[in-house]
Amino acid sequence: MKTRIREISWMPVALAGLVAAGCLSDPGVGPEGSADSSGDGSGADDGLALVGSPGGSGDAAYPCDGDTSRYNAVVTQSGSGWVARNGSRNVYNGGDMRAAVQAALDSLSRGRTRKESVLVQGSGTIAASSRLSVPSYTVLNVCGTIDVTGGGSGDMAPIYARGRTDIEIPNVTITGTPLYAMFFRDVENLRLGHVELRVSSGLGIRIDNHGHSNRADKVTNIELDYVYAEGTSSHGVETYGVDGLRIGTVVARDTGECGLLLNDTINAEIGKVDAVNAGTGTGYAAFRLANRAGRVGDGYPTNIHVGEVVARGGGRGIFCVSESGGASIDRIDISGTGSNSILLENCHNVNIAAESGKVTGGGDVRLAARTQFANSSDITIQNLTISNTAVNESPCAVNSTFRNVTLVSARDNSCR
Known about the structure:
Layout (H helix, E strand, L loop, with lengths): L4 E7 L1 H8 L52 E6 L2 E6 L2 E6 L2 H10 L9 E6 L2 E4 L10 E6 L1 E5 L9 E4 L2 E12 L3 E6 L2 E12 L3 E6 L10 E12 L6 E17 L6 E17 L8 E6 L13 E9 L3 E5 L4 E11 L6 E4 L2 E13 L4 E4 L8 E11 L2 E5 L6 E8 L2 E3 L3
């Protein structure tokens, strides 16, 4: 049984030309463990404003203001070397940034059940073949830059934790050639504040539950306030097996794959995804749901909410695939993608542009399905202006709704 609600309007070509000319207002104005690569344009950065506070400290409780009094241990750059102290104890003095920070982390109280904190003041290098292991109940505030050098293999990352809980990283900037910039496996109660990744390889932030013997046992209570990810060869931010995710803003620039990818992740609240050239030349997207993201039990109640997705160039804008869904996106602004602007494939209960949106040029808005999964169902596309591309639907989805959709020099190949 198919329910078709259609309220699609057409704008004459002549009027559309005036809009394009600016005479009238626009009417609608990886690495190890990466997700499946079922997918398989370029656009310049047009000055999109970054949401968040990219110019300053991202955490009011732990600002990078030089005050050391609130920390249990402090790591300080001293000329070409590093000194780590815990109270009156000198726990490291030498030339290795990684060793200095690890010594400070290891100097915190054993067996603690409350957070203790480490401040890093200064910038230095860490080899891609090594990692900092962050223990449970720890605040690690890096007021400087970690430059990752060389190569390596496996799950190495300058900031790494596995099987831990209650970790907070208020501030960090990572550059260079990491395999992963930040890697958290089986970590719960994790909070990342202001993170800047300006790298030339690897995956930005990976959070997963893949050490669990039962993958249905998800990690919980994950928060990311603000992430800027540039130059990764894989995704900017990727989650796999998370229940309870809050993200303020992800800004992705020239990431090799997705800006933000949620795999097998439920109960997520996301403020904004702002991507330029995410996944150029690939089937990846600025924002992607995959591997049963949003599926709760055997159903798809709305449990993933996104305030806004902005995509310029790159691969796709929004991509929902492999039995994912349960998602609502309030506002979208997608332009010039090399592949589909929006692709919903074998997805269920997805509401696109609940408030407003526009798709301009680039690839089509497409509803599709592979035969090995159940057909797409309960898709709502609304409050959307689509210009200079097409709406394609094949096969016809079950219970799809198109409401308040304006086509400007665009083709309607949806089911009727």
